[in-house]
Design brief:
This protein is an all-alpha fold. It has helices at residues 26-39, 43-62. Helix 1 (26-39) packs across helix 2. The longest helix is centred in the middle third of the chain and has 20 residues, at 43-62.
Length: 79
């Protein structure tokens, strides 16, 4: 019996398959490598976690105070 092997998808459901490049300094890359290894997750997964954790803080600093970040988990739709 033959079982077709599809590539394993690690991204959460609904995440776009297109990658986004991020330029890091050597020391930043070493830190990312170390954290990803320590937590046993991919660089992409760790980068996404960091992005999601920091996005509300960044938006609070640069957006109008009345703007509130609503995560997709809370029901926001992405345009």
């Amino acid at each position: 019996m033959s079982v077709s092997k599809e590539p394993r998808r690690r991204a959460p459901a609904g995440v776009d398959h297109r990658q986004i490049a991020m330029r890091l300094l050597p020391a930043e890359r070493e830190q990312l490598d170390s954290l990803a290894r320590d937590y046993g997750i991919t660089h992409g997964a760790l980068s996404r976690e960091i992005y999601l954790a920091g996005l509300p803080v960044w938006l609070e600093q640069v957006c109008h105070p009345s703007t509130r970040y609503v995560s997709p988990a809370e029901g926001a739709t992405v345009a």
